[in-house]
Fold this sequence. Notes:
By secondary structure, the protein is mainly α. The longest helix is centred in the middle third of the chain and has 25 residues, at 55-79. The protein has helices spanning 2-13, 17-39, 41-44, 55-79, 82-106, 109-132. It is built from 6 helices and no strands.
Amino acid sequence: MELEHASIQKKETTLPKWILIISGLFALMEILVSVSMCISPESTIENVDHQAKGVDFLIQMWASRQFALGFIFAFATYKKSIPMLTIAYIFLLVMFVGDLFIAITQKENSMIVASLVMCMISSAMIFVLNKRK
């Protein structure tokens, strides 16, 4: 009886490989964006005067945000933790909702589409993870 209960409990908390792969890709993507922003901000952020006062500071802050999110995703994926991944996807969703509002105010159609897609992906992942709890 205990062995059966343990296998049911393990089955409920085990994450499918596809969730771990997607989460790992998000971790890698966020870390690579962070590194790219530190090494070559001109290639990542094209429409900004990089010589203006304070721009480097803002880019470093943005890069650290991206790195932190990538690290959180990597750690949560490594630990295979449903609660940690849920929080990471909630953070990602909030971040892309903010990006969506920025894109709308700036009339950046490609950013609007990208933000909407990322909002849908992160919402779907939150839904899938909550079904697994």
